[in-house]
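Thread: quick sanity check before group meeting

JM: Hey all, I'm pulling together slides for Thursday and realized we never actually wrote out the predicted structure for the chain we discussed last week. Dropping the sequence here so it's in one place. If anyone has concerns about the input, flag it before I start.
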Amino acid sequence: MASASLQFFAFILALFGVFGDIAATLLPNWKVNADVGSNIITAITQMQGLWMDCTWYSTGMFSCTLKYSILSLPVYIQAARSTMVLSCILSAFGICITTVGMKCTRLGGDTDSKNNACFAGGICFILAGIFGLVPTCWYTREIISNFLDQTIPESSKHEPGGAVYTGFISAGFLLIAGVIFCSSCFKRQQGPWIYPPKQHYFPSTEQESNAGYSLKDYV
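JM (edit): ok, ran it. Output follows.
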């Protein structure tokens, strides 16, 4: 029962991780630049994502531009695109597989088959967490390095946006869920296997007495 409850808790974490992973992939605010200028009425917030760039004005109007060209993008954005998509696919596969392998469901057959499915789903979650963590770290590193570079003008410097933090949290949820699913599939070893049972050796006199006829009766 405890293992089934732990798997259900890991499944909830994985669901949050999947939704957060998809949201982080699609959100346009991976890096944000706020340009207030001399008048707050003309304040502009520029957001850049993996697929589009958006501009938000203080009047409530906004406009977005899709990034159609792939080769013109920096390497870290191209890598972030591919790895985040892989993370979403692997996490979706993990949800489907662990649904079959969880102990609280009636799918998947016998116990061994459910354990194998649960372990495979946990591996998918771990890989999805790694694929989601790598682009967010790389993207954050590029933002910080450009922000600290003195040769870059202030108007071209950015800060990490909400999509980066969402990606970090989602990757953590997927990693924790994967570890829980993988660890819950291992069977506990029985105590006699580690500590062999003590064998009781009876003396020869007791064996002779239990034989039915004693040699002393014939003397």
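AS: nice. The first helix runs from residue 2 to 26. The chain is about 55% helix and 10% strand.
JM: adding both to the slides.
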